[in-house]
Give the backbone structure.
Amino acid sequence: MMTAGRQVELRFAAGGSSNEIPKGLSAVCSDEPWLWVAGDEAPRLKRLYASDDGPYDDHRSYPPGDLVDLQDGSDEEVDVEGMDRSGDLLWLVGSHSRTRKQVKKDDDDSQVLENLRTVRSHPNRHVLIRLPVDAGTPGRGALLDGGVGGLADVLSTDEHLAPFLAIPSKDNGLDIEGIVAVEDDVVLVGLRGPVLRGWAAVLELRLGDVQGRPDRLALRGCGKYFLQLDGLGVRDLGRDGEDVLLLAGPTMDLDGPTRLFRWHGAVQDRRSPVVKGEQLTRLQVDLPVPTGTAGPQAGDDHEAGHHHEAGHHHEAGHDHEAGHDHAEGITLLADGPPRSLLVVYDSPSKARQKSDGTVLADVVPLPG
């Protein structure tokens, strides 16, 4: 089991451009020397700089609504859940999810019932955005939104996913988390949900430009792949050469183990819609288990044997605040050896947050 080699500071109060400190981070992309991050509760794209002494600072903040035309206005969150850099383009994807109103601790019975029947759709979440980037500065980009020809429209007749489009994400409905560019206009996006009888889904989106509309993208095709990730959903995707890395975690509103998988050769070879066996390797990486319990999780001493595993089986044990430190974003760092991933967290524990606006991320050695 590889353990986190070190932690690194993300200094969001540095630079003087914004004092917004994210409550949690849901997406990250290393673009040396720049680091792009986003939280899922604020309509902001954030950029940091890798300083010589280790921390990321020189914080700059960019409202996505200044870079693309959002259907629901620039003040409503996009809920960015994945980012990737390919060439001079930065890709962002929203969750595409519906939400059920959250029940609060002090709600009376009538309020509980009212909240549980209130389902909302958020147009700004139904976007895939492509931004040109030059020297760490994003320019005006193009987007695919949730209208006619958008992803939900295309999936409305899909035999596997159509029934889940109207279901809120925390009820095992459609919930995108993670994006990786594999060709100029082909991206893979991972689904936290739905998970179908223990099988997670990854979508292949083939995109194109819209003639006369430089601000728009068109969805030319959509494929899908099913992967057995120990019953977990996809929390993020990343590229490592010709392989795709998958960060996997619980679907819906559950706490539980977070694991890392390698999809061998997926950048060029995606011939089978069912990914199993030696195509998929679970990597032994020590990530927090956000359940507030120490030691291996129930069932971790037994593998189903449906994929090859690298190293000895063991789930890391940590003491963490219950419901905190959900690993949500991974990005491969260019420095090394050893090769390593930077990992960011949603709902960070108090130990990851400093009063000066600094958030701590993990740098984890990456197994081969």
User: Anything to note?
Assistant: The chain has a mean pLDDT of 86. The chain has one domain: 6-365. The domain at 6-365 is CATH 2.115.10 (Tachylectin-2; Chain A). The two ends are 12 Å apart (CA to CA).
